[in-house]
Amino acid sequence: MLAVPVYKMDGDKAGTVEIDPGVLGGRVRAKLIKQAIVAWLDHSRQDSARTKRRSDVVGSTKKLYRQKGTGNARAGMRRTPVRRGGGRTFAKRGPRSFKDFPKKMRRLACRSAILARIEAEDVVVLDELVCSEPKTRVFAGMLSALGVDRGCLFAMHENNEIAHRSGRNIPKLDIRIVDDLNAYEVMRRPKIVFTRAAFEKIVGVKSE
After folding, report:
1. For the whole prediction, is pTM greater than 0.85?
2. By residue range, what is the domain housing residue 67?
3. Does 160 score more than 70 pLDDT?
4. Does residue 24 sit in the same domain as residue 119?
5. Most buried residue, 49, 64, 67, 115, by most Cβ within 10 Å?
């Protein structure tokens, strides 16, 4: 069993939550996590770069002048890559077609990443999130009390507009719904904060 600490908003410890590693895949699959991160970054690229090959450049294919007898270096068409205004030798063609990453592998990679962070003691659970109005100062104070103010992923079980508006201006803070997590975002920040409801949802257990 793994124990995850539970804290209140003021930083006081409110107990621990014990979970079975089996609900998160049983073991850390480092290679699968890397595959998921690479796939996520690949699919995040706009990949719209496009330059012209010599077949795309406007111009005649006629030889500029005869091969011998002019005293000049040998030359072919004006669209050749070695001449100014010609096409590129290795042109960027985009968009590329990326290899699909199956849903079951994505889910297992995300759970494996969470298990790795729990084993590294980088995960804390927030007992209760109370936000009556959007205040960045209050949200930042809570992160400081939890010791995660140098960068963290804050995961909630459902969308909370007040919490989002409170934390959107805080540097190195990602606020996500737990259902939208992926291995890249789980591994990106130094710490992870789950609300109690979000943690119960991802591990499928009821905490005391």
Report:
1. no
2. 50-93
3. yes
4. yes
5. 115
